[in-house]
């Protein structure tokens, strides 16, 4: 069965490995070595995602997590206070998604120790998940045969199942105005930042409804205080679990850009809105939900089925016909210096995955 002390050691060892997005090689080497020691055949696709397989009996099962972390995530010093693991306060903890990786490794180790019969397992550790699900988007699905599984990348306890997640449209816009000296001839300039301000006050931003949000998360432009800014760039997104709403607000964004563009006929606004990932939604009767409910019941937990406003590798799996649902990994406050991992919940995650692998 899953071992608490071994799990803590593994988790802390993984957390100490720097793995910001784009710098996952050391994590790759560590997890690949551990999987090979457990009898897995480990391979990599062209994007260097880890795809590892272990033969078994029955319908194959995917166990997935990602290798990268967000910044500030270098030189993390994990500290254990009772049942709670946290950083020293100068960095994130990296529980997202090191706790997910540790859960997979501990569960597989426990299964091997027990000698129990188990399902065929396909472990997928993706790269560059943060900021765009890039590893999953570039995953070589010809190397994947399983059609069901779990994504160990959810906030909260393992019984928190993300049964609905949104589509995301990425919004990128470039504004070209006209530079001029701010003191000598400001009337000859067209400020790209003023145009950006008009956009920001007209776009529907923030929480639109319970399943729809939008945001402009990045704005840059200008050169110096005495130059009317010629150029500005905006980067944002629109998300919804409802496709019609996503399309409606995408159209509204385009309309606002057209309206503001008409206000400044001598400027140029170029906007690109493209889909990053698609929504999914499943019900309580779905086979993957039922599979998870059985495993959770074995450790005395009831499933909590929730919708999310965030995307994960699961969105991409669903696009490829693979029903792999995110579950909680015992971590709170993702992407912040206040991030924590609650060890009893991380351990429960390993216990549930152990039961999934043995085909409960």
UniProtKB/TrEMBL annotation:
Cofactor: Zn(2+)
Single Gene Ontology MF annotation: hydrolase activity
Lineage top rank: taxon: Eukaryota
Keyword Zinc: yes
InterPro entries (UniProt xref): Bact_exopeptidase_dim_dom (IPR036264), PepT-like (IPR010162), Peptidase_M20 (IPR002933), Peptidase_M20_dimer (IPR011650)
Keywords: Zinc
Start and end residues of each Peptidase M20 dimerisation domain: 172-260
Record has Zinc as a keyword: yes
Xref: Gene3D superfamilies: 3.30.70.360, Zn peptidases (3.40.630.10)
Protein name in the entry: Uncharacterized protein YqjE
Organism per entry: Geodia barretti (Barrett's horny sponge)
Organism taxonomic ancestry: Eukaryota, Metazoa, Porifera, Demospongiae, Heteroscleromorpha
